[in-house]
Design a protein that fits this description.
Blueprint: E1 3-6, H1 12-23, E2 27-32, H2 35-41, E3 49-53, H3 59-66, E4 72-77, H4 93-114, E5 118-127, H5 140-159, E6 166-172, H6 178-181, H7 193-205, E7 210-213, H8 215-225, H9 229-237
Parallel strand pairs: 1-2, 1-4, 2-3, 4-5, 5-6, 6-7
Helix pairs in contact: 1-7, 3-4, 4-5
The chain binds NADP nicotinamide-adenine-dinucleotide phosphate.
Length: about 240
Amino acid sequence: MKRILITGASSGIGMYLANGYLAAGWHVIACGRSLSKLEGAISSAHPELTLCTFDINSQSDVLEALKPFTSLDSVILNAGTCEYMDDPLLFDSSLFKRVIETNVIGTGYCLEGLIGNINQGGQLAIVSSSVTLLPLTRSEAYGASKAALDYLTRTLAIDLSPKGIAVSLIRPGFVDTALTQKNTFSMPGIITGEQACKYIMQGLEKRKLEINFPKVFFFIMNLLSLLPNALWRRLAIKMIRAPE
Ligand SMILES: NC(=O)c1ccc[n+]([C@@H]2O[C@H](COP(=O)([O-])OP(=O)(O)OC[C@H]3O[C@@H](n4cnc5c(N)ncnc54)[C@H](OP(=O)(O)O)[C@@H]3O)[C@@H](O)[C@H]2O)c1
């Protein structure tokens, strides 16, 4: 039986992935901050489920909690947070630190604890975002954190290839989860968590280097990313909203 470890499994995309891999016959190690939230999110009575709790911001907690999980066939580093910078003139460095620490440094702690425990022929996937295709208003912190993950993942794809580990970069568009339910702007092409899970499972099955979805949204974002910077900046400025 194949073993997969998924972070951020207590809600949203990670929760659908944990349930999806259980249904597909894998042994799933589902990670989150809260045991009760994990138990509520996943078929917790399932014999092939192991729950694991830690706050990704604590290096010692992450390393201690991940120690028992050796011989992994697949790892999906999905835990993450999103906060927007509302006023660029009042640059909130605490918000910036929170987002970078959870999304980037926390991912680094998980890599330290897990990378040596992935089997030859195994897989590692990191969840970034389609935000990295274009600079978007209020995304100073979130966009920078995900751009860092893009670079990290692409570099790991090179360095882990000779070690027999396939690395995938996952870049979702808008997915209906707790993270996006607090957004008050329109989210074009938004899909359900189930649909996101299907895209990711299919992409990982094919050991794709990049898993970008939904397709039409990604195609449009990609086209826009080809515009000269100055032209995109003019369009993006039009998206700036007055504070509520
Ligand atoms: N939804 C989208 O439209 C979208 C688009 C692009 C990329 N993404 C990315 O997809 C990933 C999953 O997001 P989601 O939409 O499924 O959001 P979500 O429903 O809010 O889930 C986030 C998950 O990350 C965990 N997490 C957050 N901070 C943590 C911490 N300090 N320590 C340990 N776990 C922590 C959460 O655990 P708790 O339950 O304990 O909070 C939760 O399980 C994120 O990396 C996000 O940036 C989402």
